[in-house]
Batch of 4 targets.
Target 1
Amino acid sequence: MACFSGYSDSFSRVCWGEMGVMWSEKYRPKRLEEMVGNEDARAMIFDWLLNWKRGMKPLLLVGPPGVGKTTMAYAAAGQLGYSVVELNASDQRTKGELSKSFTSVLSTSLLEENRLLLLDEVDGLYGRADFGGLEYLAEHLEDLPVPAILCANDPESDQVKKLSKRARLVRIKTVPSRLAELYLRLVLEKEGVTLSDENIARIVTSAAGDMRAVLNTAQSFVPTGTLTTLYSKNPNYSLAEAINEACRAGTAEDALRYLQACDADQDEKVMGCYNTIVSASSLQPAVRLRALRGVAGAALLIRRIKSTQQWRLLRYLDRMLADAMHGLGIPYAGDPLPFTAKVRIWNDSKSIKAFCNQLARETNISSREFTAKHLSPTLLIISRSEGGLETWCALHNLDQPVLNALQRELKSIIASIGK
Amino acid sequence: MSTESLMWSEKYRPWSLGELVDQKDTVARLQAMIKKPEEMPHLLFTGPPGSGKTTVAMIIAKTLLDEYWRDFTLILNASDERGIDVIRERIKVFASHTDRRVGIPFRIVLLDEGDSLTSDSQTALRRIMEEFSLVTRFIITANYASGIIEPIQSRCAIFRFSRLSKDDVVAHLESICRKEKVKFEASAIALVYELSGGDLRQAINQLQAAAALGPVDDQNIKRIYGSTKRSSVKEMVQLAAKGDFTKAREILVDLLFVYGISERDMLKYIFEDAFSMKALDQGSLARMMAEYDYRLIQGAHPEIQLTALLAEIAAMGSGVKVQ
């Protein structure tokens, strides 16, 4: 009963391919001592099962995906002569279903071989679909005739909180990167495949302690041999890296992988692409146009998603951006505004607005119209009048910062007139 | 010095219909109408900027309400105050007051640039116009009648203000110069008219600024015109069409973020400028601008859309085939 919890769609797509067997299954450890990381937890699980007597609390293994919770249960069971009966999130787990499974496990357990009940993904027990399942489980945990191991990802989930009173909680931690690397090298050796040290390091870092992800990602590298970096969803894979790689990618397809791998918010992605394009001074007009059309289209898509709340439209976003960015060959740029420009926006825009609003009111005109057509003539007129700008500002209750900003504005007007 | 006495455009704002520059047909109709104020309907004035709409509205208010006109007139610029709260809280409250002095036929709400009201606001306004028509009259101005919803149009007498003629504007500017004892060159006055496109307020302001700079000659007039943000938009479009995208975008960012030029105005000005450039294919330009305009209406990120628009113009200008 194979169960691939925590696999994202892109993983399964990439990994099944021509390769047939997934490394993460092929090299799933059969014995506890073959595993890496979590030494104390492994020893504890072994002792618990070895000394198991009816009435002992079941184990509740809690830890992130891919660190070996299910593997530990199977390995311990295999080593101590138990066969595993597994119920996971793919099985319906209503009160009725659970009770049926329990009855069948319990009724036969005395006659046949030793059984271990593995309840995987208990934090996936949901209210409506698995109605009553959680309560039933909590009730029957303590008097089970067979040893039971429960697994869950989220220690803060309601399910874990509810069950932890009736079970012995064991924390399973992520696999340290040096151990993950060791295991990966072992697998590569057995497969007769080589990967550069740099790629190995990247794979291990990006998997962030998820041993299954290490193996899956490594396997996905091998058939193409062209990818230089990762495309697993990873918060550590920054927007800058994703955009840099997308711009370097030869095809939109490749660029898409990098962009999909990056976990950044959709608005940030669009702004990142936009900023990158406008910061590049070397683009040919046609190339720039293609890129900006793509990004402007993506920005429009976001707007449509937000106004219609049709989030399924989001699936087109990365593709539009990939098409815009691939092959540009330009470096990522975060913020294209020079610092001086920002200071000006901060300091002067408010003051200019205050001035324009005031004069627009006094001359019965909209401030928009005033700003576009009358700002510079009016400033000149006031500055050449008796008392100048200073007196005028004082009379109109405009404070010193506004006066300063207006003087800067006037200076730049005069400078531009001079040429 | 108060703005009103400082700025010639205010100082020489006409205070009777007879002093008005041009708009003779409109003035004749209005003069007949205000003889019987109790029969005056709501008014809608349409026409280009600086053609006298607001001036005429204020003259009517002053003529009908006499010395109390400021107290009984609510002047709002819809472009600056266009939310529905303004309609509900300010206009409705003002319009519903029934207190009147002897000789005051009604209160007046002067709503400038009514076409920048959202259609929600306009809809809210339409009931107010009927409900309080016994005590309040509305005068709404707009560049185009099409910006005002049909139900409001049908509640108003519509007056169309035409673009001011060159002769009238030139004569008016020259008379101001004489009153202000400013020397001018005839060619410079003609240039002011050309550059301001018949917008009298803009023409007067440019004349006065040129006079502040020195002599009113062609060079100073051009300098003043060149210093406006409106002419920065033109510079931006020209740079883009010449292929200098980077420079054009710098101007765009400056206009958007330092001066707060709205994307709507930006498109309006780009439209005026781009369509006057013969180098750009007018058909593709129209299709393209219609698309970006619609995107901004939909609320797409303005900076990104306008930047893409500049890239489109740059590509068109450099002869790149645009599919």
Target 2
Amino acid sequence: MRAFTYERAESPAAAAAAVARNPEARFIAGGTNLLDLMKLEIEAPRHLVDVNRLGLDRIEETPEGGLRIGALVRNTDLAADPRVRRDYAVLSRALVAGASGQLRNKATTAGNLLQRTRCPYFYDPAMPCNKRRPGSGCGAIGGFSRNLGILGTSEHCIATHPSDMAVAMRALDAVVETIDAEGAARRIPIADFHTLPGDTPEIETVLRHGEFITAVTLPPPAGGIHLYRKVRDRASYAFASVSVAAVVHPGQGASGGGIASARLAFGGVAHKPWRVAEAEDRLADGGDAEAAAEAVLRGARPTGQNAYKLPLLRRTLAGVLAQARQGRGEDR
Amino acid sequence: MKFDTPAGPNPSDRGRVLGQPRDRIDGPLKVSGRAPYAYEYHAEAPGAAYGWILGASIGKGRIARIDRRAAEAAPGVLLVLTHENAPEQGEDSDYAAPQLQGPEILHYGQAVALVVAESLEEARAAAALIDIAYDAAPGHYDLAEERDQAKLPESGQTPPRTDVGDFETGYARAPVTLDVTYTTPDQSQAMMEPHASMALWEGDTLTLFTSHQIMHWAQEGVAATLRMPQEKLRVVSRYVGGGFGSKLEVYADAVLSALAARLLGRPVKVALSRPLIFNHTTHRAATIQRLRIGTEQDGRIVAIAHESWSGDQESGGTAEEASSQTRLLYAGENRMTRNRLATLDLPFAGSMRAPGEAVGLLALECAMDELAEKLGMDPIELRVRNDVGYAPEEGPAKPFSSRKLVESLRVGAERFGWEKRTAPGLRREGRWRIGLGVAAAVRPNLAQPSQARLRLDGQGQLTVETQMTDIGTGSYTILAQVAAEMLGLPLEAVTVRLGDTDFPKASGSGGSWGANSSGAGVYAAAAELRGMIARKAGFNADDAVFEDGGIRAGNRRIALADIAGAEGLVAEAGIEFGDLSEKYAQASFGAHFCEVAVDADTAEIRIRRMLSVAAAGRVLNPKTARSQCLGGMTMGIGAALMEEAVVDRRHGLFINHDLAEYQVPVHADIPHMDVIFLQEEDDKSSPIKAKGIGELGICGVGAAVANAVYNATGVRLRDYPLTLDKLLREMPAAAA
């Protein structure tokens, strides 16, 4: 760990300004990911700006009937909020499927969106990784790639985004609110928030240096059956092989497929939560899970080790939709 | 005390303290953080500087250039050692572990530098500044590719080959045959406490606080490496946070902390980082195992062969002896076993909980399940039909000292509800496919000489001192129980001091021999002390009864405190084991039962319940013994379902080198578990009639899981771990 200086910000704008003026500064909130990365010198900030005490830890109702979740709301508190549990159950379920109780007590909403990949080559400073050291190559391609991405990957990076929360937020059409050093606010739909690796895998979001997340807003409740199915190698404390966040309105739909409408987002498969409008359209048009999965998986480029994620995603989606058709939100 | 005739009735039989489910003596210290582990002897080695070890980042080759100047100039740095400036050390051997002795790199994670600084953070940051250029050489990292070059090793824990009768002919003539190959991956012991050491020099005397399972092995290894007399080296491991075989050897933390402390003239502490542990220390080697079993139509085995292949460094020579249990478990007149060894350039292979049996049974006990199905027999009946009362390779002249395999299977079947098992793939609950599985367990009973010193003081308090270690198993408690039972004292009157080479040499913890061997050592010292007490009190030792803190014969009773007097009484003695293990085959036996649920959509496997039945001689403390079994079952579930140290064959390392990526079961993976101990006292094992249990708990568990997965799904996977990607390929999608 390299030596660093530390300050506690007095306001969101001051926090943004403090980071903006120092190219080697980072925000620190829960620190559940950043501190680990600093120990390995994968992140080596010279300056940390603590944003924990800015009063951004509240969940408020918006005039439109949605929720505005402060950037510093802890994952535990967000998952337990009665309004979230009632109206956005997919988000509660995704949150409690992630990490461990101790980590969720500390991890924040904004930090969760900004956590970095758990690709083993990113985590080993002796290995090549274009995300950690641009231009050094991708160790995962041709290496241990069993749990890495199949969609939206590039020849430079096949990392996945590890968040469960973000997958649910993608299904809910959340909006990320930010403020910059000049105090200017920006609203970024979550669909546009995370980027694909392309030839700049070191860039993971559209945030500019110093741009500070203040909140995530959820639109008014969409109703429906909320499911989050996370498939993994052990029952807890593991990243998703594949996850599905689903908000489904069962019904006859346009042509009797049993689903009137569905929003589906997928985790564990790409550099960002994955959502394909055509898949949802197909379901609304009476298509089955297989047809929807085909649309989701179009363009997939698996490795030999992670090709299993294709049938796994198809089957997981089929299971989730079967459950939704039965009108069951509860997992069994 | 020489143990060479079966034990008769003796004072350890009384069952007042020994055999009772007592709480761990060290429990409160541990849960309140007051039990010092190797990195935490702050009071005894104050002001320690912090060392950080840098491991090689190639799998094979040599260091072309190493520049330590930037690290030496970094803030807080006190010392940087590389092969260019490290002190000369003893020759590499089974014990010695010289570090930084040249530019040659044998394996990824081999130590290439030590940085010592005022703080851990400074040492770690400076280590990143060491500039190294390597000449990498091509290495061999794939067991399957090297399989055909494998040879029988010259030596091992057990013979590399055995032949009885004529396997090939017997197999060729058998009406029913099975020929299957199983594979198991590399595994890491993944104990909680990392390998760590604190070194304190006082003149030419070194005290090394470290984390080791066997004190005198550590002492021999470190002394040989540092080329110093053993009597100048004191090794202390009062508490060890798990070992599982990983802490049977000396690594860079011990050697380099000692060298740096001597150079700097102040204590130095070094712990291995978790990523380094995976590649610097030993692991359980991957295996390929071929089983061939031929039977009569009634299931009676007429020919059985178990061949195993594993790999190690050329200078390591450790084979994973996966065929070993097949020599003990089932009858059959024509037999053949092989434990072959290939040369690989991966980190050194070594012991991990039940080396040999743990992975050997993953193959053998699934093969038995496959065979039962082929024969149309219940898997329990097939095992019962092939039960044998003597070592099957040696014949009736070498009977088992005790063997309750059939009883384990029968009791377990009844308690677990085995009769509810259906044909494969039939039972369904919601989206889950349900299956039951069974496997037999066996682990040879090993013994080592062990000594102890008992000190009785004028307050009637007894202190037990021995080099024995407690690696989380309960040694403190059971040794106190042995001593208390022998001397008629309450447990509270006994203090046990362990893990210090200043104490009498003991068995240490390895091979499941610790409890029985060191317990017998304490028994021997207690017998000596009883004699001293009786003589001093003028009693005939054979008539005297030790109870309630006193000695009594007829109506005469004297308190032990009064006999000990102000100067106290000290007895030192030990146990040595004679040839009973040659006259009798000795092993612990058991059976594991498992119920799994498999997600019909995703092929996720979850354990629903599990039962182990164990017959392992006298159970010294049912609570700590049960914990050993639960831990073994948990580890067995890990081996079956998730544990794999993944080899990157381009770079020659275990790439998933942390506890997020190397997955072991978490609480949510472990459902209801039961353990039943069968009543058994093995009078040929030791005076206290116990046998090993720590490894029995893992032996066969994974096979029971795999057999349950087969029963749930109808899919037989032969490549461990049984992850969902493998199962998904074979398991049809559920009907929508």
Target 3
Amino acid sequence: MNTTPRLLNRIVLAVVGLMALAVGASGLLLLALPSAASWWRDVAPRIGDAIDGLRTGTTLGEQSDTMLWTSVAAVLLLLIVLLVLWIAAQGKGRTGVFAAVGRSGPPGQRDGVDEATPGSVTITAAAAEQALKAALLERSDLAGASVSTWEVRGVPGLRVRVYPRKGVPPYAVAAEVSRLVEALDTVTGYRTPVLINISSGARARLTRAERVS
Amino acid sequence: MSPDQLDRSTPEATSRFVRRELHSSRAVASVVTGVLLISGCLLLLFEAVLRAVGDEPFLLDVEAAVALLGRLPDGVPPSLLVAASLLLLAVGAVLVLLAVLPGRRARYAVPNERAAVVVDAEVVASSLARRARVAAGVAPEQVLVTVGRRTVRVQVRPTSGVPVDADAVRAAVADDLGRLGVEPAPRITVLVADTGVVGQ
């Protein structure tokens, strides 16, 4: 439910991977093919001359090629900033507000409000999460449960993760959890998007199977 | 749903959840790649700044390294060049595969009226194993269930002298899968071992 940029991830991985493949392949080619080696022997000095030309062109008076190194540093710094932003974009999207009406709500979520009425009501994400979690943890066929709130296209949505004990039929868990979610709908007055994730965590794996059902 | 509830849930949102839950986001690979690239860039940045202020190089003399690249394949032992190239090829192949492969997770999407429901394959397998065990009348250790996206394989080792009804096991497993409602319904294979195990 998070806003991880999945397409960007794949594009960047593909670009980096293709670059690594190209460098690795050319390294092997230089060794294996004499013609490739002689071609590189031809081309490399010309690239070196071009760099030297650039260096003399950007050196002013008494300086010793300071400008070139500074611009290389600037480009690297920009690249680092972009990479940090890319890493920071992974797994974003949690929100602390389940629902807000009235003047305190963010503009997109002021639904069903009489704007003339003073005051506002906010249901924090923690309230909805704890209500649902408390109801889930009462059940003996679940080894654990966690609930978190994520902003999905401007709308808060709940992610319910339950860890049933070994052998508990998932359809029963799904039916029971969705019944609890419907109860939460009635309590809060919002029918929010919900994702129910029935998973096998380490805790569920290690605890004993339920003998009596 | 009663009319005074505000509906914020849409079928599109639900199918989007399911689609995203069934496939890997490649977040781990991205973070690892990003951290490695950042460390490389930081080293180069440091060396560039040292050169800019006219200091001695710290770890890597960039100019000498570039000159070495220009002289390849001379100046470097061939074994080292081969090893480095192969390493780069392997890393590149892994990254390209990560980018291109769908990255399906071992999970099933289950139809549900209210929410998007995603079940780990392991949970399905353990539920099926329980049903199969009860139908076959054997101990938990005698049943092994393997689930794939399109196939379910149930292996039963009967208790010595007590025959196992493979059809009953198949019916029980099919019933459990049917209640879950996984689409498309996986093919069920029940294998009863020829040799039994002694008294469980």
Target 4
Amino acid sequence: MSEKIATRDAYGEALLELGKENENIVVFDADVGSSTRVKNFAAEFPERFFQMGIAEQNMVGTAAGMATAGKVPFVSTFAVFGSSRVADQIRNSIAYPNLNVKIAVTHAGITVGEDGATHQAIEDIGIMRSIPNMTVIVPGDAVEAKAVVEAAVDYDGPVYMRFTRGGVPVVFDEEDYEFKWGKVMPIKEGSDLTIFATGVMVGEALDAANRLAEEGIDVEVVNVHTIKPIDVEGVVASAKKTGAVVTAEEHNIYGGLGSAVAEALGENYPVPMKRVGIKDTFGRSGGPEELMDYFEISAKHIISAVKEVLDKK
Amino acid sequence: MTDVKELEKKAKEIRRSILEMVAKAGSGHPGGSLSATDIVTTLYFNEMNLDPKNPGWEDRDRFVLSKGHAAPVLYAALAEKEYFPKDELQTLRRLDSHLQGHPDMKKTSGVDMTTGSLGQGISAAVGMALAGKLDQKDYRVFTMLGDGEIEEGQVWEAAMSAVHYNLDNLIGFVDYNQVQLVGKTKDVMDVHPVVEKFEAFGWYVIEIDGHNISEILDALEEANKVEGQPIMIVANTVKGKGVSFMEGTAAWHGKAPDAEQLKEALGELA
């Protein structure tokens, strides 16, 4: 297994580096800065760091006001508090006026682990995806996470970025990685079926693909970092090539990557497919890997899903 | 020397515009627009440093209408300031209009923040004031809250943060007209005592009669001298002020007058 780095660590590093180049970047925290890794930015640029206390709604609105004055605010908190808790503030104060606020959340999904269901966002992608003007990005590893933060700064408009608490295998090579805004990224060629994966599931999907190869099943793995807008062309192209699809995400099967891919294929090129994700249930306490098994989203469950879909092909 | 009589005349003009545009639209919020009129008029025609020819001027004073449903009073003031032609007020709430039911900063020239979901405008005002401090600019940020609006928890989150960051460039108003959509504020969810609440949060609070232009002017003069803390001007007002049959009643929170009622109302504001 390759080196594991939490994507929140990459976020914190990227923010610090970008803060040196861009004086308009300001960072907001709601008493979780040591966990979201914005503490490094805070130490280096205290005048551009705003501690807002445990008051996320005001934090989001304050960031919106800052954006009207030309700043590039990063709102940082845990995914549960940066999505459902402030959905209306994001909708009305940021997305509707299309203000240049970046919502960077960490501790997403069930791999938060022991803190349990209240702290495990499994519906945030669905919420954010249904808000007009919002871009939704989930990086697959630390290399991609850094690139995403940089791309978000270059983009003028609201972006929701979702990072992990725990370590994620580094799957991309920093030297030749290139982030293409809004495009899917094929990372392993294959002919029998396509696995579209996002976030922590990119590593799981690659693992599944390698194990399937040993059984003579040749799957394609496509990293979908940008869930909205979904790259319809890229999704359809791979589905046309393989004729079967599995999606893999650390999110509810409703509203996230699986839904986005199903919508793209349903309207353009329907093929047999199955969504691997949280099956419309809340999380629970446990170790991250135990929980991936418990909720049936680890590599072995992707393998079962692949076989199930291939039977229908 | 400020001409109070001129401001009173302007406020009357704005009240007439509010009633005409809401009647023409067939819907809207006259009650809370009329209660806020004297304050908004004083801000736009005497207090704020603005350049209607350059609405995005970065050193301008800002106004955030946190009680966004009072959009008609803001639109009337902006039209009087020539941000857009006054006859466009007649298009309020129409599909082809830039004048949305609630303020939209991307559609209407002169609107500094999109508002409508209550409790959110004050946070944006905090952000604008923080940005002004960060950039060492002299602009001030004004915001207006409804008394019903301060039932929203976010208002108090914002109130805490404005004091924490010593935002003396933030001047708020509570349009304390004591009536909200379904009835009297004290019956719906009593917000009393408003002055003491903001004082307890650390604001510099001034209480005035929100329909007395001289008191509004004096309060602003006092507010401009405050250092190190945000200022809240609690303005005692009358919902529907200026139209006898609308005054003090929840029925006119969100209802348009018909032709007969409009005629009668305008008659009172002649």
